Each structure stands twice: as C-alpha cells, then as structure tokens.
Predict the structure.
Amino acid sequence: MAAPFTLRKIGVPPNSANLTEARRRVFDFFRAACRSIPTIMDIYNLQDVVAPSQLRFAISSQIRNNAHVTDPKVIDLLLFKGMEELTDIVDHAKQRHHIIGQYVVGEGLVQNTGSKDQGKSDFLKNFYTSNYF
Amino acid sequence: MASLSATSLSFKAPSTRSTRISQVLRKASTFQSISFGRFQSSKSLRLQISCAAKPETVQKVSDIVKEQLALSADTALTSESKFSALGADSLDTVEIVMALEEKFNISVEEADAQNITTIQEAADLIEDLVQKKPAA
C-alpha cells in the first residue's frame, strides 16, 4: 500500500516567474488533488456514487476550462482558488451534496456562465433564455 | 649509536612495511570482494531492468491509456507509441500517470513522471516501483 497522501498547507508562495513554472505548479496541484481523491471518497462516502477516474476527469476538465490563460499571475490566482477549494473539501468543510452537485453530476447545479460554453449554437442560447427571439 | 638506531630502524621498517602491506592486502581483498559483489548485483539488476516490463503490465497500461484518451478499442497500441502521438496533451499525460498510480498502488515522483513519453517507459517505471515497494 503506498504511503497515504496528506495535503500539506504551505503559505502563499511568490508569483511564478514564467509560464513554465506556472505550468509546473498546475501539474503539482493536479497531482495533489488526484492523490487526495481516496481521502475525499472516504470522507463523503462516495464509493457507490462515483469512481475515482470520474473525479479525476472532473478535476482535469475544470483545469482545461482555463487552459487558454497565458498570464502567469492569473494562473497563480486560479491555482490559489483551486487549492482553497481542495483544502475546504479535504477539511470536510463542505457536504456530500455539494461534492455530488459540483463534481459528479454534469455541469453542476448552477448553470455555467455563457463565456465557457463556446460550442453551443446561438439558437439554443436564445432558446434557453426566453421564448421570444 | 647510529648503527644501533640504524639496525633498529631496519628492523622496524620491514615490520611496518609488512603490516602496511598486510593491511593493504586485507583492504584490497575486502575491496575486491565488495566491488565484485556490487558488480554482480548491479549486472543482475541491469539485466532485470532491461527485460522488466511484463506483457500484462504493458497491456494494463495500454488499457488505461485507451480509457483516458477515449480511443476506440481496436486502435493498435504498440509499446513504443508516444502519448503525444495519440492525441494527449501534457495534462492528459499527468492524468494517465495518476491513473497508473491508483491502479498499481505506487507513488511516482515528479522527476520520474516527466520522463515518461511512451507506454514502454511507463511500464518499465511501474515495474521498478512495484519491485522496490515490498523491499521498503
């Protein structure tokens, strides 16, 4: 059995100097999140609901959502928010329905903002907002 | 006096020389044995690593890669196919490594993970870590 992974809470590190360091931090964050998945499934009793690979896919899709960002400082801020979210989840500060709604079920309970779904058609966008267009 | 000292010196000299020689010989023999032992074990380790990855490990790695990259079941995956050639970006590669970590119950260091570009390398690294694990 591999040694259990514990999320160490480090203080805020200085900004990354360039894109490669920001990239490295993204991968480190992703690895930390994936290694915390067994703990998360244990805390929130998600064994019957979701498989670890689905949770990994949810995390990676959230990261991919912001893959178009090029400014290292913006990436740092996104990572900070991601790390905050991960720490909250691991600390059991959230509840089971939060996790299931946000990461297990499709787009989640809250509809995503329009800028993220660029592939949908204008007809559908208008259709979802009102009957008259 | 001088002759006495000379004789005493002369007596001492071979004894010291002999002890030194014997010490050197002892050290040399132990050194030789250690180096020989190490040489043997390193040779055997090297042989193990070169023919390490078992076919079932490679097969499991290929299955995980196919599932992760959503490839159809009949795409031919050789052990030398690179992840980037199969349409995986760097995040996909990290995700594949994490899936392998979970599947084989190992823990891959960051430095090792960056060198993985083909399926064969991944299988070799897994074999290494699986062998090291029960020894630790």
